[in-house]
Amino acid sequence: MSENNKAILAAANAAIAQGNYEGFLSFCADDTKWTFVGDKTLNGKDAVRQWMATEYVEPPLNIVANLIAEGDVVTALGNITLKDKDGKASDYSYCDIWRFRGDKIVELRAFVIKTEIKDETSSAA
């Protein structure tokens, strides 16, 4: 089951990378619950759809460093870059904990931290 859940998450992420948000949502249960720790909770597929419509102006650049699976849970560690409506990019590091029921995503607990890329050449020695 663990390897199957990793494959499902990889396919879902590939759909997002192609801008196919409905394709991604097809991997989610109707009663999916997404908690962005310290920020907000989205209840249901429609809430996730509305969130994606505002947050994913362009498909995000998502670099997954590690996928760790056990039982019905897959943990993803990585970095993501999102562009806003003005084209300004913001970078984040994340740890996402995805829970599955059968072959559907039923829960996400996302720990997301905005990161700043610093120009090391501008620091004084």
UniProtKB/TrEMBL annotation:
Annotated Gene3D superfamilies: 3.10.450.50
SUPFAM superfamilies given in the database record: NTF2-like
Protein name per Swiss-Prot or TrEMBL: Nuclear transport factor 2 family protein
Occurrences of domain SnoaL-like (ranges): 12-107
Top-rank taxon, per record: Bacteria
InterPro entries referenced in this protein's UniProt entry, alphabetically: NTF2-like_dom_sf, SnoaL-like
